[in-house]
Amino acid sequence: VIRRDRNAVYRLRLGTELQTHVHYAMPVRNQLYDAIEYYNQMEETALRHRAESTGRNGAGGNSGAFLSGFRKKDRLIPVFTLTIHFGPEPWDGALSLHDMMEVGDPEVLKNIPDYRIQLIEPAGLNRTELEKFRSSFREVMGCIKYSEDEKALEEFMKDNPRMNMDIRAARVIGAMTGTEIEYGEEKEGKVNMCKAIEDMMRHSQERGIVEGQEKGRAEGRAEERNFILDSLAKKVKAGRMRAEDVAESLGVSVETVLAAAGKD
Which of 72, 78, 117, 256 sees the fewest Cβ atoms within 10 Å? Predict the structure, then answer.
């Protein structure tokens, strides 16, 4: 990545870590990636010097340069590793190397170099921050952020001036939210955002109905088991059945049967 301003030209190597789940050792992982990238730059520089040099030691006569292959005036390209969390839940993992330390004493930690991760997560983005994204990444982050809030998702859709998104972004949204988006007619690799959001909302409603039905069946089975338990507990109390036999048949503890038999 090359950036320019009125004073200088900046070169930056950008790496991305895409996470669907929280990685609780991300500071160490990203620090390792950055260190490897800097080491590779150093090695590339050393190889270039060896190829270009006509000096006796291949590093311009300086012993420090000879050992490292890196000259005093050599410079590294900054490395920036960005972690993107593709989950609707907030990132609850460490944000820095110090966060992972067993020791929390500031006097000890001040002597240990820290490393902080650069994190983008849907849950941490507000509307103003979402609008700063100029690509379909805005829709991806917004749809994941509001995927579990139907009303907020609908408002996000209505407030978004871009009604068409890149179909690849729509596929990411579908994968991250577990939604089967029906793309319909594609036009130049684009898909209608309204249609995609409607699909998300419909699938969300369908999942809610299924979950409600499953919850209702579970509650019904629990009520039925309690009714049978109460009936058999009465027989235990009357001495007509053994608590152990009732517990085994219903898959509950003997204590549960005795507690039920002690009612009335």
Answer: 72
Any idea which residue has 């994941």 for tokens? Answer: 144
Q: Are 170 and 183 in contact (CB under 8 A)?
A: yes
pTM for the model stands at: 0.60
DSSP letter at 90 equals P
How far is 127 from 100, CA to CA, in rounded Å?
31
d(CA 34, CA 13): 10
Helical ranges in the chain per DSSP H: 26-52, 63-68, 106-109, 127-131, 137-145, 150-159, 167-177, 193-237, 243-250, 254-261
- Phi, psi angles (nearest 5°) of residue 31: -60, -40
pLDDT tens digits for range 18-76: 777 889 999 999 999 889 989 998 999 988 888 887 554 444 545 556 667 888 889 88
Q: Centre a 10 Å sphere on the Cβ of residue 99 and count the other Cβ atoms it contains.
A: 14
pLDDT: is 61 or 124 the higher one? 124
- The answer, yes or no, to whether residue 132 has pLDDT greater than 60, is yes
How are beta strands 164-166 and 118-120 bridged, if at all?
unpaired
Q: What is the CA radius of gyration of the chain?
A: 31
What's the pLDDT at 59?
45
Q: What backbone torsions phi and psi does residue 48 show, to the nearest 5 degrees?
A: -65, -40
